[in-house]
């Protein structure tokens, strides 16, 4: 079984969408292996989004993800579970996300698009180690 990391972002938590988002993954047959409601500090946010450091949107990204509680979780599923999760999330820009995806159904803007999911098996391993070192 493969694992991937999700972060249900502050906008989704504030809107009370955590249950619906997790339910969608469970209905798809994915299992929540670990999860925690957390407030991310700036250092953890910077480490998580390190590949974006130096890009114009990086400061806003760090500011947003640290602006309120998030749910950090590890989902287990079939091979390449990260790809299943990414498909279920929809595109980064909710206006371009297909109906039936999390962002297509529930998000309204790119900067606050409800959820993060690892974009590869390698990213999943790195991100899980950052947030859940006991699972790495």
Instruction: Note poorly predicted spans.
Output: none
**N-to-C SSE series?**
EHHEHHEHHEH
CATH superfamily: Nucleoside diphosphate kinase-like domain
Which secondary-structure class do the elements indicate?
alpha+beta
* Mass-distribution shape: globular
CATH class: Alpha Beta
Query: Distance between the terminal alpha carbons, to the nearest Å?
Result: 14 Å
Total count of strands = 4
Proportion in β-strands: 15-25%
Largest sheet at a glance? 4 strands, antiparallel
Q: Which key terms come to mind for this protein?
A:
single chain; 136 residues; alpha+beta; Alpha-Beta Plaits; 4-stranded antiparallel β-sheet; 40% helix; 19% strand
Can you give a write-up of this model?
The structure is a single chain. With 136 residues, the chain is an alpha+beta fold. The chain has a single domain, classed as Nucleoside diphosphate kinase-like domain (Alpha-Beta Plaits, 2-Layer Sandwich), CATH 3.30.70.141. Helix content is 40%, strand content 19%. The protein has seven helices and four strands; from the N terminus they run βααβααβααβα. The chain has helices spanning 10-14, 18-27, 42-48, 58-65, 81-89, 102-106, 121-131; strands at 2-8, 31-38, 70-77, 115-117. A four-stranded antiparallel sheet has the order 2-3-1-4. The longest helix is centred in the last third of the chain and has 11 residues, at 121-131. The model has no long low-confidence stretch (mean pLDDT 96).
């Amino acid at each position: 079984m493969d694992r991937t990391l999700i972060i249900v972002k502050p906008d989704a938590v504030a809107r009370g969408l955590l249950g619906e988002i997790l339910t969608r993954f469970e209905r798809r047959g994915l299992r929540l292996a670990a999860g925690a409601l957390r407030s991310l500090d700036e250092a953890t946010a910077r480490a998580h989004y390190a590949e974006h450091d130096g890009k114009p949107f990086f400061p806003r990204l760090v500011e947003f993800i640290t602006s309120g509680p998030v749910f950090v979780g590890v989902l287990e599923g079939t091979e390449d579970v990260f790809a299943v999760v990414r498909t279920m999330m929809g595109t980064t820009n909710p206006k371009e996300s297909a109906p039936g995806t999390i962002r297509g159904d529930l998000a309204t803007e790119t900067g606050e698009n409800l959820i993060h999911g690892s974009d590869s098996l390698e990213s999943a391993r790195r991100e899980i180690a950052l947030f859940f070192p006991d699972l790495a």
